Amino acid sequence: MAFGEFDLIETYFTHRLPQRDDVDLGIGDDGAIARVPENSELVIVTDTMVEGVHFDRETPARALGHKVVAVNLSDLAAMGAEPAWISLAITLPEINEEWLTGFAHGLREICDYYNCQLIGGDTTQGPLSVTVTAHGFVPTGKALRRSGAKPGDWIYVSGTFGDAGLALAARQHRQQLNPDYQRKLTERLYFPSPRVALGQSLRGIASSAIDVSDGLLADLRHILKASHVGARVSVDEVPLSLALTESLSEEQALAYALTSGDDYELLFTVPEAQRGLFDTVTAHSPSKPVCIGRITNEAEVVQLLHNDEPWQLPDTPYGFEHFRPLADTSAE
After folding, report:
1. Which domain holds residue 16?
2. Using one digit for the tens of pLDDT, what is the confidence trace for 90-107?
3. Is residue 279 marked as binding?
4. How many distinct structural domains can be found in the chain?
5. Domain ends where: 139, 162, 185?
6. Which positions bind Mg(2+) 3 (predicted)?
7. Annotation-wise, does 236 bind a ligand?
């Protein structure tokens, strides 16, 4: 079957995704028309994934369809927003029906789960890349930001860290893993779970928040810069999976947990006065947050402690950064 652009859209993306009542006009016109609920603000996020930069040719199409949505929903989660709509811009080198079926399947699964409707986008021909823009709602004035942390606030994280980074290293033959662990870690790399419910529960409680996409320390520094504060972090408290601790030395495991990206967990701060309420609302969270440190008044200074003693991170970059000079491979 010969496919054109509109055949592709009609076949794979028009009728296979959730339909929401707040969308008056979706795919098929020059623009979409949707309604924002009363007393709410619209949160808009965008992420692009490019072959050879964010994924390789061995990445399953279904995984890419899932992940390109998940990374956007993780950004919405970090702002306490409820996901609503996505738009998709996809550049394809050719029409590959098997690949498109897998990609659309992954996209549909995660959109079904989070009740997101695909309302528009674009298709072009060229090197493979995928861009998703996600829209979500948050009650007026309740969005979480990076800029609210204050000295004395407690630093929390969800989930475990370093798993996706280790999975990528194993795929690139830089680390060897037990086959069972490799399967589990690859699942985390390919199918991250955005902490949407947790993000919404933090509204009115957390003083700042961010999703960890570029590395725990790198993203912590974004909060510190925006809030003009510092941090003291106990590396012993950073949650690690059994796969990580049994596959690496302690120093290696901590380096992966603190610096590798693609975890898509939440990092946030909670004032002392809100800790009781925070414990109550997160008591039954499937990804129970863990306290790893405290905010200090030393602007943008990160103090790392191991066994209550000052600790130096092994010589490694602080997370992923586009356009980093190749020679820049040392921690700050």
Report:
1. 5-139
2. 999 998 889 999 999 999
3. no
4. 2
5. 139
6. 30, 75, 211
7. no
